[in-house]
Amino acid sequence: MKRNNPVVEQSKAQLAALGKIESRTQFGGYALTVEKVIFAYINEDALYLRASEALHVYNAQRSLEPLVYRKRGMPVTLSYFKVDKQLWQDSERLLQLSASSLRAAQDEAATRLVSLRLKDLPNLSLRLELMLHKVGICSVRLLCETGSRQSWLKLRALNKHIGLKTLLALEGAISGHHEAALPSEIREELYAWYLKTLRQHAAAEHLQR
């Protein structure tokens, strides 16, 4: 597993004014997020910023390289643009453009939260949507605010047959991943929490007997 990538650390340091920047592995690189909203991506040790109005204006002057990755052998161009050497050296402009990318991503995320139903998220069926409604989680926004673990605990209280697969499905729904495509470190962390939680529940039930 990749750790302490120098471009990740450099990006976090130089863009710290945006807020608490976190990174997670994705598609062979790293997604950079603030409050779980992706605004940049690191691929092959290069930083790419999400498209925004300000970045489009800058791109018209500088012609930045777009991010291209291969999907089933075919090249796919994403709306992310490479931070070149000149932009890295202009720290003030880089921060301004990064802030614009973050705002654009946040606006899109807010619109998505309002328009989507729970069943529209990855991994979530109509049946699971109805179960979430029964435990008071009636919107995408509320699911994201509650988080996968607390949402799972609420469902588990409703139905003791709810298992690990549902926990992974909830995490994927929140992060935008198919359950099978969750990063390995997240799967391992959730699996460890799941086993610990089951042991705690078993111990509590034993004491109540």
Average pLDDT, all residues: 89
- Oligomerization category of the chains in this entry: single chain
Query: What percentage of the residues does DSSP assign to strands (E)?
Result: 15-25%
Helical content stands at: 40-55%
Low-confidence stretches: none
- The succession of helices and strands, N to C, reads HEEEEHEEHHHHHHH
Cα-based radius of gyration, to the nearest Å:
20 Å
Instruction: Report the sheet with the most strands, covering strand number, pairing sense and barrel closure.
Output: 6 strands, antiparallel
Strand order of the largest sheet: 1-2-3-4-6-5
- What is the overall number of helices? 9
| Backbone shape | elongated
Span between N and C termini? 44 Å
Domain TfoX N-terminal: 14-105
Domain TfoX C-terminal: 117-193
Organism: Pantoea nemavictus
Protein name: TfoX/Sxy family DNA transformation protein
Q: What can you tell me about this protein's structure?
A:
This protein has about 210 residues and is of the alpha+beta class. Helices cover about 55% and strands about 20% of the residues. It is built from nine helices and six strands. The protein has a six-stranded antiparallel beta sheet with strand order 1-2-3-4-6-5. Strand 2 and strand 3 (about 35-45) form a beta hairpin. Helix 7 (about 150-160) runs antiparallel to helix 8 (about 165-175). The longest helix has 25 residues, at about 90-115. The chain is elongated and about 70 Å long. The model has no long low-confidence stretch (mean pLDDT about 90). This is TfoX/Sxy family DNA transformation protein. InterPro entries: TfoX-like, TfoX-like_gammaprotbact, TfoX_C, TfoX_N.
